[in-house]
Amino acid sequence: MLVATKKHTAYEFVYKLLKLVLILPVATASVERVFSSMNYVKNKLRNRMGEQYLNVV
Where do transmembrane segments lie in this chain (predicted)? Predict the structure, then answer.
């Protein structure tokens, strides 16, 4: 609505705040997904490292 009435230039701070509020949940969910997948990969690598050390001994 701010862009349609071209008031986003007059209320720049409010416009940026609204954009942040709308984008934040999406960004948070994607970051959580990345950390979750990274955790999965790290656990797999740790398990493989442990198996290699056990096989050598």
Answer: 20-41
